[in-house]
Write a structure and sequence with these properties.
The protein has ten helices and 14 strands. The protein is of the alpha/beta class. The chain has a domain of 218 residues: Spore Coat Polysaccharide Biosynthesis Protein SpsA, Chain A (Alpha-Beta Complex).
């Protein structure tokens, strides 16, 4: 493989995962021009010392403070010159041939800016995994979902999504991107800190004319929730706040207020679901997310050439909440995309 690829694993206090998974990353990512990098986001569990001692062949970058997912990757990728970057979670195990498949799909499509493997469950390897599944999509109110995962319904992999497919977004669990696209987009938006920054980046890439694709020939097995659990109120806060930030940045001015108003109403409905589930401590996080969004939006860099939402790839031209809960469309193939 003559092209250069940097596989960068951003780590924050997951030394145990590095100990169990790094060997597989190395075994399944061999190549003269493939470099594996661990970027430690100021961990307190001796992760950096462990990598330095046990994996001296891996390049180690020590970030002086915890910059989150967005800031951490921006910090360590800003001066790198590989042809492609892979942003790989520390709780992910790539399968053999994963890199070659991603390069192949990207090289044959000059418009492709980013791609993702199929993300499979680490423990149940015939099942898709929540954070990405077979590729990311979005509904007209900004709800992200996946081919193979809608809300909490995650499908078994029976080969039903084995075709290459244009997406709305690629998952940050294993995010493959051309360096030129990364640089033109100026990386991830650090206002997000963590969660949905990869969706925002993919939306910006689409506004710039790039395409996002799934690559079924490439597989990565993902544990999920290694840094922040799905049960965490903090994660609820980041997801709700960042979704509004993403909509404000990337929607055209004439559709922005209407979509965000409707999305806030749906957030209120989500709060009712949290109450029914007994997750009362998540409710203040939704309110805080809305307040902080109003404070932060004035400082956001809004896109100058945003495309009309309905013109983008991977968009469901309907409401996902309505389709899923009232129409009973629990799987991607029922949505008519």
């Amino acid at each position: 493989m003559s092209i250069a690829i940097d596989i960068v694993i951003l780590n924050y206090n997951t030394c145990d995962l590095l100990a169990s998974l790094l060997t597989k990353v190395i075994e399944n990512s061999k190549g003269d021009n493939i470099k594996i990098v661990v970027a430690d986001n100021h961990s307190s569990d001796n992760s950096a010392e462990f990598v330095r001692e046990k994996f001296p062949e891996i390049e180690l970058i020590c970030i002086p403070e915890n910059l989150g997912y967005a800031g951490g990757y921006n910090y360590c990728l800003k001066n790198r010159k590989a042809d492609y970057f892979v942003l790989l979670n520390s709780d992910a195990e790539p399968a053999p041939g994963w890199i070659e498949a991603l390069v192949f799909i990207t090289e044959k499509n000059p418009k492709l800016g980013a791609a993702q493997p199929h993300i499979m469950d680490f423990k149940n390897r015939d099942k898709f995994e929540y954070a990405g599944a077979a590729g990311g999509f979005m509904d007209k109110y900004g709800y992200p979902f996946c081919r193979g995962r809608i809300f909490g319904n995650v499908e078994e992999n029976n080969g039903q999504y084995n075709d290459e497919k244009p997406l709305f977004w690629a998952t940050g669990a294993a995010f493959f991107i051309k360096r030129e696209a990364w640089e033109k987009a100026k990386g991830l938006d650090e206002a997000f800190f963590a969660h949905m920054e990869e969706i925002d980046l993919c939306w910006r890439l689409q506004n710039m004319g790039y395409e996002i694709w799934s690559c079924p020939q490439s597989k990565v097995y993902h544990i999920g929730g290694a840094t922040l659990s799905n049960q965490s109120p903090r994660k609820t806060y980041l997801n709700f706040r960042n979704n509004l930030l993403m909509l404000y940045k990337n929607l055209q001015t004439e559709e922005r207020d209407s979509v965000i108003f409707k999305r806030k109403l749906l957030d209120g409905l989500a709060a009712c679901f949290f109450i029914l589930q007994g997750k009362i401590n998540h409710i203040p996080q939704i309110l805080k997310a809305h307040r902080d969004f109003e404070k932060m939006k004035v400082k956001l860099k809004v896109g100058e050439n945003n495309k009309k939402l309905e013109s983008l790839e991977g968009l469901l031209h309907a409401g996902l909440v309505y389709s899923y809960f009232l129409k009973g469309k629990k799987t991607w193939d029922k949505l008519g995309l």
